[in-house]
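Homework-ish question, so no full write-ups if that breaks the rules, but can someone show me the predicted structure for this set?
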Amino acid sequence: MTEDQFKDELQSAGSVATKKSAHFNQAKSRLLEAATEYLLSVGLANWSYRGCSRALGVSSNTLNYYFKSKDFLLAEILESMRRRDLPLLDTFKEVETDQFMELALAFWDVMSDVKQFPLGMAQFELYTLAMRDPDKYSTVMESEQLWIDGIKSILEKANYPEDELASASRLVIWTYRGLYLSLLASDHTQASNDRARSAFKELIRLLVAQFPKTKRA
Amino acid sequence: MTEDQFKDELQSAGSVATKKSAHFNQAKSRLLEAATEYLLSVGLANWSYRGCSRALGVSSNTLNYYFKSKDFLLAEILESMRRRDLPLLDTFKEVETDQFMELALAFWDVMSDVKQFPLGMAQFELYTLAMRDPDKYSTVMESEQLWIDGIKSILEKANYPEDELASASRLVIWTYRGLYLSLLASDHTQASNDRARSAFKELIRLLVAQFPKTKRA
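A: Not a homework solution, just the prediction itself:
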């Protein structure tokens, strides 16, 4: 076999593999989407492999074929939940410093919408699982780092005091999580949302007060 | 029976009832203490009435006698967990404005000690139950108000901007909860504690920067 023939062979093997895999991936991604919706509707505490296969109308053999096992499926569902927020993070990175307050409140309003409650609840259930078994759920905390880095790049652009950049970024994310938890665990009324939102707004006000004056809106 | 005799009768009935009730209350309070320790050791997710009676070495009839039912016992355990933090809240109210940073960090260090982790974990498990069933667990959120009021009285003493007092107090509590959650759901190392602590410290720095200058340390 000449070098060119070998390359052709490789290429066609690759393209067959890709076609087969594209079909597999498409079916898998449809199942994953449905499995994620199912988890969000019942909550993490009530989720089971059997319940999931029943809800999706497929056998557990089919789930095994695409996801290998319960743990792998659950991991992929959690990963797919996590990815849902990422487009918002990209928006964050584009933001101008003088829009920081506006954007932070828009972010709050999107995330605290009642339609997002199932996702939020599943996330907190996931944190509580991670509390009891941090090794198994270590990716949960790793993915927080993406958000912390996103906030950091905004604060950096705004010339926030350099020594406090890392702390302030972590502060924003976990204040948001804490206030969001207070909303989810409360009576879910607009008044509860307003109270949590105004506390979040107060944090942003405190941060903006640290921006050098030329950078303020 | 004269009015005086009637009063005497009432008084002695009362004192018998009190004696009986003191004995009852003493036994109940010992059981409650043990039941609380049991819940902290297994976590809320793994807690059961049967497991609790077995761990305490008493029959479920005995538990029924003192606590009426599983739900009443659980409610009393949660109330007893909540009361554990209250002495700390009283310390808070005594604090001088120029000790605010010092006290906040001491508070963090006490609460984030590894010995407190079981209490913290049970609290977050409780919040996630409240998320799914806010009416049943409405007292969980009501008790947060005590803490918010405590912080408010400190910020008020420090002449924190009046319009933002309520928001800032809520901000402190839920930032603390959020950062504490990040610690519990992480790898529980000292490095994770340091990161969460420095974010909490940054919030306190931002708040102190709002105190009128004469009030600062």
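Now go work out the reasoning yourself. Hint: The longest helix of chain B spans residues 3-42.
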